[in-house]
Write a structure and sequence with these properties.
2 helices; four-stranded mixed β-sheet; elongated; about 40% strand; alpha+beta
Length: about 180
């Protein structure tokens, strides 16, 4: 898998073609001195549970991993906290207004987007909702369904970090 910095040949500040590898995570311009670091992007995912313990699972409507299972979530926008990001993403993808997401854990991921590998840190949150809420699939979600947490198969999730997160969440929840 190519390194994300391989996509950048010219300095984004001065346009020089002397934009060369500085170390494993950065490139430096030998003309203007600018150094660009390829740090991971922030992303979120939500374990949305009702009082019966069911988990809201999405079907991805877009690539990468279109038509595989997913959790509601997505990239955190600039000037937004991770909590604001998960609240916004859940609203966009499910129509649900959530409050007080509870942070659980994070997992690094590689996300192929427009032919480029985007390194992310995926932050997982748990959210509880009332049984009478009716989510609606929108934005990146092609469909939504409630599933018993024990019936969820992590191998059906198309993104590696989400599959790993579901497996970790299940092991913690089902061990209780």
């Amino acid at each position: 898998m190519p390194h994300p910095l391989d996509k950048f040949s010219f300095c984004p500040v001065c346009g020089s073609n002397h934009f060369e590898v500085n170390n494993f995570k950065s490139k430096r311009c030998h003309d203007c001195g600018f150094t660009y670091y390829a740090n991971p992007c922030s992303a979120t995912a939500a374990f949305i549970r009702n009082s019966r313990g069911d988990l809201l699972v999405a079907v991805r409507g877009k690539e990468p991993a279109k038509a595989t299972l997913d959790l509601p979530g997505g990239f955190v926008d600039m000037n937004e906290t991770a909590e604001e990001g998960i609240i916004r993403e859940v609203l966009e993808e499910t129509g649900l207004v959530i409050t007080s997401p509870r942070y659980l854990f994070s997992i690094p991921n590689r996300y192929l987007y427009s032919g480029m590998v985007i390194h992310t840190v995926d932050m997982f949150y748990e959210v509880n909702v009332a049984d009478d809420v009716i989510p609606r699939a929108d934005d990146d979600a092609a469909a939504l369904k409630w599933m018993s947490i024990g019936d969820v198969d992590p191998s059906l999730f198309g993104l590696q970090s989400i599959s790993q997160g579901v497996r970790q969440y299940q092991s913690e929840i089902l061990a209780l």
